[in-house]
Amino acid sequence: MKKIAILTILSTYLFSSECIVNINIEAKNKSTTTINIKNKKECIINLNIDDLNISKRVVDSNDTVSNIISLAKSKIGSKYESTKTGPDTFDCSGFVYFVMTNNNIKIPRTSLNQSKIEGKKLSREELKIGDLLFFDTSKKGHVNHSGIYLGDDKFIHSSSGKAYSVTVSDLNGWYKDKFLWGKRVAKKPTEYFILKN
Fold first, then answer.
1. Which domain holds residue 168?
2. Catalytic annotation on 142?
3. Which residues, in sequence order, are bridge partners of residue 196?
């Protein structure tokens, strides 16, 4: 009876908030129940874990920004090579494609097509860590380069310039007037709450 009461309290609280939330309840074994909460809007849910008798709170890091950035940074120094998508050499869009597909995020292969994926075109002021960045480095009026935003005006990309490898660059430097827009593709983390017996 305690578990049923806890689930009722939690679901009532969440659905009364302004967030859009889905709750899926999955029995892991005879003694525990997991509540899977997926936030579809950016919001803060104030929850007193102790009051709800929850013993464990776990954030599933699959498809999260932290995994994207970790994989991207692990490739720093990998050589640039046209048409390559890794795992050891990359062109610019091949690097972005490799990082995202290895985090279960499906995107097109080329930077031009990547820039056309569904979603709002983000200005520099709207960028968040993990967002895709698109550039017109030749100043010909179309996207020809892509990278991944690291925060603090830095981004990681496979450069065919002086570095000729996966490197970190500054948006305030040479790329400042070449930046066109960003796109957000990273999924939010999933939180699991394990109920006490």
1. 65-183
2. no
3. none
Catalytic residue, from 19, 43, 92, 142: name it: 92
| 23/82 same-domain check | no
The pLDDT assigned to 160 comes to 96
Task: Tell me if 65 sits within 8 A of 129, measured CB to CB.
Answer: yes
Catalytic residue among 19, 43, 142, 145: 145
Q: State the Cα torsion 100-102-106-109 to the nearest 10°.
A: 70
Please confirm, yes or no, whether 92 is among the known catalytic residues: yes
- Residues 176 and 146 placed together within one structural domain of the fold: yes
The Cα 112–Cα 181 span in angstroms is 12
DSSP string, 56-101: EEEEE-TTSHHHHHHHHHHTTTPBB-TT-B-SS-B-HHHHHHHHHH
Q: Which amino acid is at 125?
A: E
Count the domains in the chain.
Answer: 2
- pLDDT per residue as tens digits for the range 114-153: 999 999 999 999 999 999 999 999 999 999 999 999 999 9
Q: Please tell me the pTM assigned to this model.
A: 0.67
Q: If we measure between CA atoms, which residue out of 151, 21, 164, 155 comes closest to residue 89?
A: 164
Together in a domain, 135 and 163 = yes
* 164 φψ region: left (φ > 0), alpha (ψ -120 to 50), beta (else): left
Domain check: are 141 and 78 in the same one? Answer: yes
Q: Tell me if residue 43 is catalytic.
A: no
Higher local confidence (pLDDT), 31 or 166: 166
